[in-house]
Design goal:
This protein is an alpha/beta fold and about 90 residues long. The protein is about 25% helix and about 25% strand. The chain has 3 helices and 4 strands.
């Protein structure tokens, strides 16, 4: 699983892509893009399969919640599990 982020500098350290990826070692051929910007209209959540057959997800995170929270890793993992259809 490849996990990347498009986020504002203020919250960049809170979106731990390596931690999320490490929680899903059994998931192959999946890409996750976390979006976390103050502009809620910046980009919608999306899901698609690319030309190489990789299943990709764009996941929008609530900027205010992430900014106020000390640790959002459990939230990130729960959202990915939900999008992948895994039991939480």
């Amino acid at each position: 699983m490849e996990v990347v982020k498009i986020v504002y500098q203020e919250v960049a350290d809170k979106i731990d892509t390596q931690y999320v990826s490490a929680q899903f070692p059994h998931v192959q051929n999946v890409g996750i893009v976390f979006l976390c910007t103050p502009d809620e209209d910046d980009q919608e959540e999306d899901e698609w399969i690319d030309e190489n057959g990789r299943h990709n997800f764009t996941i929008r995170l609530p900027y205010d919640l992430v900014q106020r929270s000390a640790d959002v890793r459990a939230l990130l993992v729960a959202i990915v599990k939900e999008r992948l259809g895994e039991a939480a």
